[in-house]
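Is this the right way to post structure tokens for a design question? Let me know if I should format differently. Anyway, here goes:
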């Protein structure tokens, strides 16, 4: 048995012993076992990560199981034990609710800050040298595995992650090997420049989903998603012609259609152009961190109703076109709590540190070398409201919320009219 498997086996035995102590309400024994385990595991980073925060994780796991059962006595007893160990409920109930919500543990890795385009709505500085090495990627994967969840997701982000293609291949194969039979999936957010047929064929052999950014017609792409090469047309290098090869190799994918206020009067034409190229799942991401004026808001509202008519006509013809936003929880501004590991091993609450460096120190949760468990970062990070303040300047957030209100209102209206069951 190698060292990694030996650590996992020892943690399993320790967890089982702590389980029994907690079920019996024997907090002294549980804490004593934990102390012994911490001493035993302190010699390796992997061991520290697996043992870190184990008492809280175990309690939350039991409480999660108890609430799904009819054994209310067990739940009451566990709540008492949790209070004895963790303190007053108000200190840990918000974290418990977050634990209940996490069906799949997710981790984002920023492989590179470089990109082939300079989009008008993207403020991430494109810098050479900020590239994740194999050692850091190994440690990030180890962090994800430490969650203990049966369902896992590793997301590759940037910059443009496909510029680090070898690291993507390495990360996917490494994570599949390390997950020990658990359900793991991968997501790559890409501009599609590097989606060659050979790479698509390789991705089709793995549980990968692509989020592909497309702006629509050539005049939208070439103006708002500019190539870094002077005079080069970004539309010609995009994934606009890749639908057939993606379908051929069975690669799950959806299009991220960025709607810019400067293109607001034509965005439905851009949407329809994307659909006409063979793409069936599209998500509208209206441009955040950009000021939308009143004329843009009105044009957006008008365009959305035009889009609704377009979708219903295509559905009536039997086309399986799906706007992903129609099935989502309504948020005025997209602000997610997603543990994100930068190229250098720094861990952040979400990816806003990439485009808002003034908030980087407040968004930073630690470093991979600290040996903490995935759950510590997930449960103890900033809440949604705090993340919104850190992710967007106040005037921008207030302005963008008005755009989100228009979009949310339209989604509710579409839902009220009935949606197809795709």
């Amino acid at each position: 048995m190698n060292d990694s498997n030996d650590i996992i086996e020892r943690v399993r035995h320790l967890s089982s012993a702590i389980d029994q102590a907690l079920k019996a309400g024997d907090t002294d024994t549980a804490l004593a076992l934990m102390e012994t385990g911490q001493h035993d595991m302190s010699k390796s980073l992997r061991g520290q990560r697996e043992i870190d925060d184990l008492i809280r994780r175990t309690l939350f796991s039991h409480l999660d199981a108890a609430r799904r059962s009819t054994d209310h006595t067990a739940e009451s007893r566990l709540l008492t034990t949790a209070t004895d160990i963790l303190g007053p409920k108000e200190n840990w109930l918000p974290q418990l609710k977050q634990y209940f919500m996490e069906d799949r543990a997710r981790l984002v890795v920023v492989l590179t800050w470089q990109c082939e385009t300079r989009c008008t709505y993207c403020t991430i500085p494109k810098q050479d040298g900020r590239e994740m090495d194999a050692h850091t990627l190994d440690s990030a994967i180890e962090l994800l595995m430490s969650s203990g969840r049966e369902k896992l997701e590793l997301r590759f982000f940037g910059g443009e992650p496909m510029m680090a293609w070898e690291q993507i291949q390495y990360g996917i194969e490494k994570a599949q090997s390390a997950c020990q039979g658990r359900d793991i999936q991968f997501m790559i957010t890409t501009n599609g420049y590097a989606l060659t047929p050979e790479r698509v064929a390789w991705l089709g052999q793995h549980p990968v989903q692509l989020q592909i950014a497309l702006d629509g017609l050539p005049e939208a792409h070439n103006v708002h998603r500019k190539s870094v090469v002077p005079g080069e047309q970004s539309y010609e290098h995009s994934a606009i012609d890749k639908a057939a090869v993606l379908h051929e190799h069975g690669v799950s994918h959806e299009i991220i259609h960025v709607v810019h206020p400067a293109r607001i009067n034509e965005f439905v034409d851009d949407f329809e152009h994307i659909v006409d190229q063979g793409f069936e799942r599209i998500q509208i991401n209206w441009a955040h961190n950009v000021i939308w004026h009143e004329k843009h808001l009105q044009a957006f509202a008008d365009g959305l109703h035009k889009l609704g008519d377009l979708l219903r006509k295509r559905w009536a013809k039997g086309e399986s076109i799906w706007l992903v936003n129609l099935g989502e929880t309504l948020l005025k501004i997209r602000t997610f709590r997603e543990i994100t590991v930068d190229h250098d091993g720094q861990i952040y609450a979400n990816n806003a540190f990439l485009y808002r460096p003034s908030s980087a120190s407040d968004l930073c949760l630690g470093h991979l070398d600290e040996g903490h468990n995935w759950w510590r970062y997930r449960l103890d990070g900033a809440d949604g409201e705090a993340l919104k303040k850190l992710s967007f300047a106040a005037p921008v957030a207030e302005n963008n919320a008005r755009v989100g209100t228009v979009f949310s209102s339209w989604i509710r209206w579409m839902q009220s009219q009935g949606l197809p069951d795709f």
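Format looks fine. Someone answered above. Worth noting: The chain has two domains: 3-101, 106-416. The first helix runs from residue 3 to 23.
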